[in-house]
Amino acid sequence: MSETTTENPEAQAPPKAWYVIKVQSGREDTIKEGMLKRVKKEALEDLFGEIVVPSEKVSEIKGGKKKVTERKFYPGYIMVNMAITDETWYLVRSIPGVGDFVGGASGPTPMEQHEVDKMLGQASAKTDDQPRLKISFDKGETVKIKEGPFENFEGTVDEVIEAKGLVRVMVEIFGRPTPVELEYWQVERV
After folding, report:
1. pLDDT one-digit tens code per residue, 40-58
2. pTM for this one?
3. Which of 82, 147, 145 is closest to 108 using CA atoms?
């Protein structure tokens, strides 16, 4: 008969994997902080890795003022790197605002490596960069130019170049459509 050791449960802890947890939408950051505090309080740091709320910073103009907001890639979800044990499962489930782990009836399903790479790539790429501009114009939309040499001209959006913060507008000059590249804040919807 083989002998099993139960004296040191940490030696038998399952490996960590990434899991997706359904949480109350809009409370992802608060729930993440609560989870980090509980993990520390219960001294379970060795069973938990990163806790991530994938998001990006978005810059937009509202009411003539520039505003930087944070946009969640997956609202209502948190990604957690952890080892699943009865203790860790209970800790996560007992935090207010946490729904359940994403998975089948047999329990939480770990994320596949390509999903983890994509999620971590999105989160790290967007946190290091400048805020991404949110330009809310669509191709074919009619706009009016508010500023510059073509002020008060109307035109049609031909292309939105978010990376540069530009909008290419087709303006009729001398009866011919002419492309004009403008800063996104120089145009408004008609």
Report:
1. 999 999 999 999 988 877 7
2. 0.58
3. 82
